[in-house]
Each structure stands twice: as structure tokens, then as C-alpha cells.
Amino acid sequence: MSQKISLTRYLVEQQRVDGLIPAQLRLLIEVVARACKGISQAVNKGALGGVLGSAESENVQGEMQKKLDIIANEVLIEANEWGGHLAAMASEEMEGIYVVPNRYPQGEYLLLFDPLDGSSNIDVNVSIGTIFSVLKKPEGHPGVTEQDFLQPGHRQVAAGYCIYGPQTTLVLTVGDGVAMFTLDREQGSFVLTQENVQIPEDTKEFAINMSNMRHWDAPVRRYIDECLAGKEGPRGKDFNMRWVASMVADVHRILTRGGIFLYPWDKREPEKPGKLRLMYEANPMGWLVEQAGGAATNGMQRILDVQPQKLHERVSVILGSRNEVERVTGYHKGT
Ligand code: P6P
Questions:
Q1: With the C-alpha atoms ordered 224, 227, 230, 235, is the resulting torsion angle positive or negative?
Q2: What is the pTM (predicted TM-score) of this model?
């Protein structure tokens, strides 16, 4: 039987081989993974743990928070604040940044996360997940401010998510491809189950919330209409559609078998560039997809090149199989 490679061993060997993972970054990733194990336990308890339902509060986005949103956020804060690897954290569930308290040593990394993405699916037992992104704190000045977080996605040093589904799987990149680790609940550790993940350049599967069709801009409407036209249409092939309404689940499917995911700008709230958040949803997912050979744009430019202006800013997201993303982006550019 082939020897199981734990997340710890994988990180140590990657660190030893190519120095991509300095000791403090390895510690950070292991702490986040351990926190995700704790979140997975809470999610798996469901109604038995009294953790379902609304927390009767709103987050910074003005969205109703679920009890598990708050629990997941607290688990990540408490797990990461004392280790000495972080200067500060930012979360979808917190308005401002969380600076590591003075009683703990400050580190050189910034951690951003959506502690529980897809939380509208919690109460109906559909896959949800934690998304995280790691940046280095800019040097040359003491302390840490929100401005330090406003770096484009190509400055990430690590990114990943943990999906809480039939399996609990951690998906990670440090810039040398994408690896997947499945939680072995008997051992209580994440075990390497796939590395060098590759997204097929073409696909027959698209993911978009079709109920918004009447609000889409022309390029998105054209692309989806052509997919729906199937074999008899300009694409000359039939397409399948999926929409889980958990970005983590839709992206995991695309990393596993290809596809294209779209959450584009639409006319419902024209002042907003999109629904999804740049810093802790689009950037980490965009980097993972690119590291697996796919592409991620906002319709006009590479998502990882977008210069953030605000911590919680939103962005239009088109990501997945490279040839499909390039087609949709071409329609936006009129090429
Ligand atoms: P809609 C979940 O709330 C989320 O942020 C993403 O995970 C998901 O892709 C999207 O929103 C679903 O949005 O409008 O279809 O409910």
C-alpha cells in the first residue's frame, strides 16, 4: 500500500525542495488547516450541535449571519492570533482588520478569509467551505493598517479552501501547482490525495445563477445563449449546467473535472461590479484556478491584476477552463 503523505510532510518536503514555504508560512498553513478541522467538526454536528439557523445579526455586507459564520470566524481568529506568524487578519465577517494583540508576537504575514462561504446552504446540508488567502505584510513601516492588505492577487504567497462536503478536503497552492488533501477522520489529519491538479482547457459544463438572466450584460447573455443552443448552435456541442450557490463547491468541481463559473456584473445593483469579494473569494480562487492551468478574469482583465481600493470590494468573476474564459472575456472586449 502506498505510504500516506500527510499535509505536514508535504509542506516540509516542499519547503526542503524549493524553499517556497518558509517555516513561518508552513506554520501558518498548518494552523489554518487545524482550524478548518475544527470548523468541519462544528459543521458536521449540524442540528445536533445547535449551530444551525440565523445568528440574528448582520455582517459588514449587510447580510444576515448564520451562527456557523460567527463560529467559523472565531475559530480562525483564535487559532491564528497567538502563533507569531501573522501581523493581522481580515474576514468577510469583520468590518475592519484584526491586528494581532500586543500580548502575542507579530509575524510577517497577512491572512484573509471567508470563514464559511455558501452559508445559505448550511441549513439545507449542501457543501460549504472556508476560503483563505495569504499576503506578506509590506516592509518598511511599523504596525499594520488596512492599506497593507490592498495588494493585487498576484502578490499572494499561499491560497486555498477547505470544502465541507461528503469529504472534508483542503485544496492549496503556494505557487507551485495545486494539491488536494482529504481529512482522514480516523487519524485526524489531512492526507495528500491529489497533486498537480489540471483543469481541462475545454468544457461542456457552465455554472451560473440562471435566475439573473434578464439582468446580464450582452457578452454574458451571448455566451450562455450559445451554450443553451447546443449542437444546433454556434458551439456545435451540448452543454450541461450546474449551480450549487457555494463558490467553494462549484470551484472544486471545476478543479476536479473542468467547467466555467460565472458571477458577472448585472443590472440589479449597477453600482456594484459584482457580488463576490475580490480579496478573500476571487483572488484565492483565481490563483488556484490559474495554478491548475485555468484562467480567471473580471470580463476585462485578469482578476489577479485588479488593484484593490477597499478591503471588502466586490468583483465580477469568470473562471475555469481556459478556452471558455478567454471566449467570454473576448466577448466583453468585442474581439
Ligand atoms: P446566489 C454564497 O453566498 C456566495 O457568496 C458564493 O459562494 C456563491 O457562488 C454565490 O454567493 C451564490 O449567489 O446569488 O446564487 O445565491
A1: positive
A2: 0.96
Helix residue ranges, H only, the chain: 7-18, 23-45, 67-80, 146-149, 218-229, 247-257, 283-291, 322-333
Ligand 1 centre and the CA of 245: distance in Å? 5
For ligand 1, the distance from its centroid to the CA atom of residue 247, given in whole angstroms, is: 6
What average pLDDT does the structure give for the chain? 95
Q: Is residue 134 domain-shared with residue 228, that is, in the same domain?
A: no
Take residue 179 and report the three cell numbers written for it.
Answer: 494539491
| Within-domain flag for 212 | yes
**Span 257-271, pLDDT tens digits:** 999 999 999 999 999
Let me know whether 147 and 63 are in one domain. yes
Residues 190 and 218 reside in one and the same domain = no
Q: Which pLDDT score is estimated for 52? A: 78
Bridge-based pairing of strands 189-194 and 178-184 is antiparallel
Q: CA-to-CA distance for 88 and 133, rounded, in angstroms?
A: 12
pLDDT for position 64: 78
Nearest CA-CA partner of 247 in 117, 108, 58 = 117
> In sequence order, which residues have a C-beta less than 8 Å from that of residue 211 and are 6 or more positions away?
none
For residue 319, list its beta bridge partners: 261, 296
Cβ of 118 closer than 6 Å to ligand 1, yes or no, is yes
Give residue 2's pLDDT: 66
Per-residue pLDDT tens digits for 71-88: 999 999 999 999 999 999
What is the atom index within ligand 1 of the atom nearest the CA of 118? 2
d(CA 126, CA 140): 45
Tell me which of 138, 163, 194 is where a domain ends. 194
Determine the residue type at 87.
Answer: A
The verdict on residue 199 lying in a domain is no
**Same-domain pairing of 225 and 178:** no
Q: What is the pLDDT of residues 199-225, one digit of tens each?
A: 999 999 999 999 999 999 999 999 999
Please give the grid coordinates belonging to residue 96. Answer: 475592519
Q: How many domains does the chain have?
A: 2
- For the Cβ of 246 lying below 6 angstroms from any atom of ligand 1, the answer is yes
Q: Which domain holds residue 85?
A: 7-194
Give the distance (Å) from ligand 1 centre to CA of residue 263.
8
d(CA 31, CA 29): 5
